[in-house]
C-alpha cells in the first residue's frame, strides 16, 4: 500500500521517474514498480517526485549564512536520490550545418504559422540529481581524496594560505580569495569529525556542485563568481587554486603576489600538474565543460610545457583538449553586434578564445604540426581592453570603464593590462594563421605575390596598435628597466619579427632574390630574445619559459648567423644595417652559447638546447681559430663537426641548421 509520504501534493500516488518520462501508467510498487522490473531497469526506478524538496542544493533559511557549511548540514537528505553517472543535459554548440539547423528552421516556420514557439528536445533541468561519492568510480574517488589531502592542514599538505591582504583586485584574485574562504569554511565545519568521513563528505558536496549546469551570468561579476565559489564550490575551483599558486597565467599577471603559496620544501611542478589533472578528470566526468574548465585546460597545457617540454605528447593532448572544449562550448562563434553589452562572462569568453587561438599558433610554429583551429571558422570579436580590476567592478563602474575605451576598444590610460597583450597578440595571430596555411600547404600553389602580400600585412601590424603600445628600438636599452609594458612590447615584437622571418624564408625558397633582409631579421630576433632573458633573469615565472623562447626564436636566428660566419656575404658592416658586423654576430652567438650552456640537459627542451649549443660553439671555434686563408666560402665544407647531427625542429622554416645534413644547403 502506498503511504502518504509517497503521494504528490494533489493526493495521488507518485509515479516513478521512468514511467513518468514515458507517460505510461505506473503501479507505484516500491522499491521497484512491475513495469521497470519487466523492462529490466530496476536501477533506474526512482520516485524522485515523491520527495518533498526539489533536487539540487539543499534549501536554507534566508537568514542562514551563504557558506559551504550551511549546505553541508542537509547533505544526508540526498543520499537516497544519488546516481552513478550524472545525465548529460547539453549537446554543446551546434553550427549552421548541424542536424539541429534544419530543426530550428522548422521550429521557426511553425512559430510563424501558430504565433508561438514550441519547445522540443530534452528538458533543461535547473539542477541534476545528487551525486553519491561512494558510487563514483574508484579511481575518481582516489583522485578526489588525494587533491583534498594536499590542502592546508591536511595529511599531505602541499600549500599554505597567506592571510595578508594584497593590492590586486582582479577578478581571478578575488575568485581565489573566495575559494580560500570556502575551503576554510568547509574544513572548519568538519574539524571535530573523523578525517576520512570529513574528506568524503566534502568531496561529495564538490561533486554535486560540479554536476550542476553552468549558466551564462551577465548580471554582475559577483554573480558570475558565485557559480564556483561559496556554497557552489566546484572541483574546477581547486584546479584554479593550484594553477594560481604555480603562477601559470599570462605574462602580465604572473608576477603578482599570491594569497596561496607552496609549503616550505614542497614546491613541485609535478605535484601541481598531478592535482590539476585530477581536478580536470573529475570535472569532465561530472559535467559537459564550462568556461572555467576551458581556462584550466589552457593553463594546464602551459604547465605541461614547463614540466615536459613544448613538443611533447602530453602537451599536445592538453592543447587538443583545450581547443576541443572551447569549440564544443562555441567560444569561437561568439558573434558581436552593434548593441553588444559587455560583462565579465562575455569578456571572459572572448579572452579564453583569444588565448586558445594564440596558443594554437605558437604550438604550430614550435612543432610544425597542423593547426587545430583556423580563423576561417571563427567569428568571435576582439576582447575589450579592460583591466582585471574593471572586469571585477560593480555594474556601474564596469559600464563607465567600457565607455572610456577608444573607438577601437583600446584603453585610453596608456597602461598595459592582461587584456592589452592578449588583444594585440590575437591580432598578430590572425595574420600568422594566413602564413601557416601557406607554409604548411601545397608549395605548388604558393606565389611570390601572395608571400609579399603577407609580408606587407605583418609589416603593417603596428597600424592596428595604440601609439603608446608600439615598439621602439629604445625598448631594448636600459638593462635594468624592464617593466611589464616594455616586456609586452618586446614579446609582441618578437612574435611579429618571427613571422617576417618565416615569410622571408619562404620567399627565398620560391626563388625570390636575396637582398639580405633575412640576415637583418635574424639578428633582430636574436637580439630581442637575449634582451628578454638578460633583463628578466630574476623573474622565475618568466625564466622557466626561457628554454622555449630560445628554441623558438634565438636558435633559428642563430642558424642563419652561423651560415653568415661560414659563408660571408659582406665585409665590415652590412650595407643595409650598420649594427650588423662580424664582431656583433660573434658577440650575439657567444651570448647564446653561454645561455644554452646554463640550461640543464634534463630541463624541458634541454636536449634541443644542448645540441644547439654544440653546433653554434663549433661554428665560433672554426671561425675564430681558422687561418685567414680559410675564412670564406670553403669553411663550411672543411669543418669537422665530430658528432652526429640530429637537431631537427620539425617545422622546416625554423630548422635553419638543415645545411648540416647531407644535401642540406638551404638557409
Describe, in plain words, how this protein is organized in 3D:
With 667 residues, this protein is mostly helical. It folds into 4 domains: 1-54, CD2-Gal4 (Irregular); 67-85 and 127-315, no CATH class; 330-464 and 484-495, no CATH class; 540-660, no CATH class. Helix content is 49%, strand content 2%. It is built from 24 helices and 4 strands. It has helices spanning 17-22, 34-38, 68-72, 99-114, 138-149, 171-189, 195-210, 221-225, 235-245, 269-286, 291-307, 313-328, 344-367, 388-391, 395-403, 418-440, 448-459, 484-509, 517-535, 540-543, 546-566, 582-598, 606-625, 635-638; strands at residues 159-161, 260-262, 573-574, 577-581. The strands form 2 sheets. Strands 1-2 form a two-stranded antiparallel sheet. The chain has a two-stranded antiparallel ribbon with strand order 3-4. A hairpin with a 2-residue loop joins strand 3 (573-574) and strand 4. Helix 5 (138-149) crosses helix 10. The model is unreliable at 1-5, 50-66, 68-89, 115-126 and 535-542 (pLDDT under 50).
Amino acid at each position: 500500500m502506498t503511504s502518504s509520504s509517497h503521494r504528490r501534493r494533489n493526493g495521488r500516488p507518485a509515479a516513478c521517474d521512468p514511467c513518468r518520462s514515458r507517460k505510461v501508467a505506473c503501479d507505484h510498487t516500491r522499491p521497484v514498480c512491475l513495469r521497470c522490473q519487466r523492462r529490466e531497469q530496476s536501477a533506474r526506478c526512482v520516485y524522485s517526485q515523491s520527495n518533498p524538496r526539489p533536487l539540487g542544493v539543499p534549501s536554507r533559511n534566508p537568514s542562514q549564512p551563504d557558506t559551504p557549511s550551511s549546505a553541508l548540514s542537509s547533505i544526508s537528505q540526498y543520499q537516497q536520490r544519488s546516481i552513478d553517472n550524472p545525465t548529460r543535459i547539453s549537446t554543446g554548440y551546434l553550427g549552421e550545418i548541424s542536424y539541429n539547423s534544419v530543426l530550428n528552421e522548422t521550429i521557426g516556420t511553425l512559430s510563424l504559422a501558430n504565433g508561438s514557439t514550441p519547445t522540443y528536445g530534452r528538458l533543461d533541468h535547473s539542477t541534476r540529481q545528487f551525486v553519491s561519492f561512494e558510487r563514483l568510480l574508484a579511481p575518481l574517488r582516489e583522485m578526489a581524496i588525494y587533491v583534498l589531502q594536499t590542502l592546508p592542514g591536511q595529511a599531505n599538505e602541499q600549500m599554505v594560505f597567506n592571510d595578508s591582504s594584497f593590492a590586486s583586485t582582479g577578478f581571478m584574485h578575488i575568485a581565489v580569495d573566495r575559494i580560500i574562504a570556502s575551503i576554510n569554511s568547509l574544513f572548519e565545519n568538519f574539524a571535530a569529525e573523523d578525517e576520512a568521513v570529513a574528506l568524503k563528505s566534502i568531496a561529495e558536496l564538490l561533486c554535486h556542485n560540479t554536476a550542476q549546469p553552468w549558466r551564462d551570468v551577465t548580471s554582475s561579476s559577483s554573480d558570475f563568481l558565485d557559480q564556483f565559489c561559496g556554497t557552489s564550490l566546484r572541483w574546477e575551483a581547486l584546479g584554479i587554486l593550484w594553477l594560481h599558486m604555480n603562477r601559470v597565467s599570462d605574462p602580465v599577471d604572473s608576477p603578482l603576489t599570491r594569497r596561496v603559496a607552496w609549503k616550505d620544501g614542497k614546491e613541485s611542478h609535478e605535484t601541481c600538474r598531478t592535482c590539476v589533472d585530477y581536478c580536470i578528470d573529475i570535472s569532465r566526468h561530472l559535467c559537459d565543460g564550462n568556461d572555467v574548465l576551458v581556462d584550466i585546460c589552457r593553463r594546464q597545457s602551459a604547465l605541461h610545457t614547463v614540466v615536459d617540454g613544448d613538443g611533447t605528447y602530453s602537451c599536445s593532448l592538453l592543447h587538443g583538449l583545450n581547443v576541443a572544449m572551447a569549440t564544443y562550448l562555441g567560444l569561437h562563434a561568439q558573434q558581436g553586434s552593434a548593441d553588444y553589452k559587455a560583462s565579465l562572462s562575455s569578456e571572459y569568453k572572448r579572452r579564453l578564445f583569444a588565448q586558445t587561438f594564440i596558443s594554437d599558433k605558437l604550438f604550430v610554429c614550435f612543432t610544425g604540426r597542423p593547426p587545430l583551429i583556423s580563423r576561417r571558422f571563427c567569428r568571435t570579436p576582439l576582447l575589450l581592453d579592460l583591466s582585471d580590476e574593471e572586469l571585477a567592478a560593480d555594474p556601474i563602474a564596469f559600464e563607465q570603464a567600457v565607455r572610456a575605451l577608444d573607438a577601437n576598444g583600446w584603453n585610453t590610460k596608456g597602461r598595459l593590462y592582461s587584456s592589452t597583450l592578449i588583444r594585440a597578440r590575437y591580432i598578430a595571430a590572425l595574420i600568422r594563421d594566413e602564413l601557416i596555411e601557406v607554409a604548411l600547404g601545397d608549395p605548388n600553389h604558393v606565389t611570390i605575390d601572395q608571400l609579399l602580400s603577407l609580408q606587407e600585412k605583418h609589416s603593417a601590424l603596428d597600424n592596428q596598435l595604440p601609439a603608446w603600445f608600439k615598439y621602439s628600438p629604445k625598448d631594448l636599452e636600459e638593462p635594468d628597466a624592464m617593466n611589464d609594458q616594455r616586456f609586452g612590447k618586446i614579446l609582441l615584437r618578437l612574435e611579429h619579427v618571427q613571422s617576417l622571418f618565416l615569410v622571408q624564408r619562404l620567399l627565398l625558397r620560391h626563388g625570390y632574390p636575396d637582398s639580405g633582409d633575412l640576415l637583418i631579421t635574424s639578428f633582430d630576433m636574436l637580439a630581442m630574445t637575449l634582451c628578454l632573458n638578460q633583463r628578466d633573469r630574476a623573474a622565475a615565472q618568466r625564466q622557466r619559459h626561457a628554454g622555449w623562447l630560445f628554441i623558438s626564436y634565438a636558435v633559428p636566428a642563430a642558424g642563419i648567423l652561423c651560415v653568415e660566419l661560414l659563408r660571408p656575404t659582406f665585409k665590415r658592416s652590412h650595407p643595409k644595417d650598420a649594427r650588423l658586423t662580424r664582431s656583433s654576430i660573434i658577440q650575439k652567438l657567444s651570448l647564446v652559447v653561454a645561455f644554452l650552456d646554463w640550461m640543464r640537459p634534463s630541463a624541458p627542451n634541454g636536449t634541443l638546447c644542448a645540441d644547439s649549443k654544440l653546433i653554434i660553439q663549433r661554428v665560433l671555434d672554426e671561425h675564430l681559430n681558422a687561418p685567414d686563408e680559410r675564412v670564406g666560402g670553403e669553411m663550411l665544407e672543411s669543418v669537422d663537426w665530430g658528432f652526429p647531427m640530429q637537431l631537427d625542429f620539425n617545422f622546416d622554416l625554423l630548422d635553419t641548421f638543415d645545411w648540416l645534413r647531407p644535401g642540406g644547403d638551404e638557409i
